[in-house]
Automatic annotation (TrEMBL):
<dbReference type="InterPro" id="IPR001387">
    <property type="entry name" value="Cro/C1-type_HTH"/>
</dbReference>
<feature type="domain" description="HTH cro/C1-type">
    <location>
        <begin position="14"/>
        <end position="68"/>
    </location>
</feature>
<dbReference type="Pfam" id="PF19054">
    <property type="entry name" value="DUF5753"/>
</dbReference>
<dbReference type="InterPro" id="IPR010982">
    <property type="entry name" value="Lambda_DNA-bd_dom_sf"/>
</dbReference>
<protein>
    <recommendedName>
        <fullName>HTH cro/C1-type domain-containing protein</fullName>
    </recommendedName>
</protein>
<dbReference type="GO" id="GO:0003677">
    <property type="term" value="F:DNA binding"/>
</dbReference>
<dbReference type="Pfam" id="PF13560">
    <property type="entry name" value="HTH_31"/>
</dbReference>
<dbReference type="InterPro" id="IPR043917">
    <property type="entry name" value="DUF5753"/>
</dbReference>
Length: 279
């Protein structure tokens, strides 16, 4: 992407972030200590945007680390973060998705409850089917890049960088929307993941009392003294990152209730193995 195109996209991104926070040009300018015409010129690409402008606005708008990294990349600034592998995919990643990837990479533990197999645990065929049947089907070229992103996200689990506690509905063992062969490979992948010392996988049977659960909820707990827990909530047609303490407490309680209905890890492994043999 040419520098001029970067500048245009950067201005558009600054405007989007301001509007997303419900701020007028005047209100945002006041926070930074600028004349409102200055911010207007930056957003409309009439004034060259520099690192000092981005830093000032990031502070005033309360931007997250992932958002700042995104802006720095548009500026062409070297962040010094060699682990930020997803920078090359920025054209197909939403700011929220980048934030999720950053949170996963910095988490000490991840707890997830789901009616579908979550992205961190998906085998390639299952991941492709999930992506192409989503509410927002991407272009073929974008789909391939998003599949690459999903595969690389999984490395925090397979490399043992994070503890993963997954509680899944029995329906994930039976739902063959991805095709018979892809489901077989997915079931085997779940068995393989369950062998990792940092992964705990349990299944909630259909007939378990009080086990109602919809969608997917993921709690990302940070390293000690590295911030607060964030919830990633997925539902039909969208998703959200939530950090309100009361909301986190409620979701943690819901996951605990769901987990109480789950089988042991050994019994869950037996259920997956039997389903694989029958498929």
């Amino acid at each position: 992407m040419r520098p001029a195109a970067n500048q245009k996209k950067l201005g558009e991104e600054l405007r989007r972030l301001r509007v997303e926070r419900g701020l007028t040009v005047e209100a945002a300018s006041t926070r930074v200590g600028w004349d409102k015409s200055k911010l207007s010129r930056l957003e409309t690409n009439k004034t060259l945007i520099g690192k000092q402008h981005v830093d000032a606005l990031a502070e005033a708008l309360g931007l997250t680390s992932a958002m700042r990294l995104r802006l720095d990349r548009l500026l062409g600034v070297e962040t010094g973060e060699s682990g930020i592998w997803w920078g090359r995919y920025q054209d197909v990643l939403s700011p929220q998705y980048e934030e999720l990837i950053l949170l996963e990479s910095q988490a000490a533990s991840i707890e997830v409850a789901a009616m579908l197999i979550p992205g961190l645990m998906q085998a390639p065929g299952y991941a492709q089917a999930t992506l192409l049947q989503s509410a927002f089907v991407p272009d073929p070229e974008d789909a391939e890049m998003l599949l690459d992103v999903r595969r690389q996200r999984q490395q925090v689990v397979t490399a043992g960088a994070v503890s993963l506690l997954a509680t899944l509905s029995e329906s994930v063992l039976l739902n063959a929307f991805c095709g018979r062969v892809a489901l077989q490979r997915q079931l085997q992948y779940l068995l393989d993941l369950g062998q990792l010392p940092n992964v705990s996988l349990r299944i909630v049977p259909y007939d378990a009392p009080g086990a109602a659960f919809t969608g997917t909820v993921t709690l990302l707990d940070p390293q000690p003294d590295a911030g607060a827990t964030v919830a990633y909530v997925e539902y039909e047609g969208g998703s959200q990152l939530l950090s309100d303490p009361r909301t986190i407490k409620r979701y943690r309680r819901n996951l605990a209730y769901f987990g109480q209905a789950a089988c042991s890890e050994a019994e869950s492994r037996r259920m997956i193995s039997e389903r694989l043999e029958d498929s």
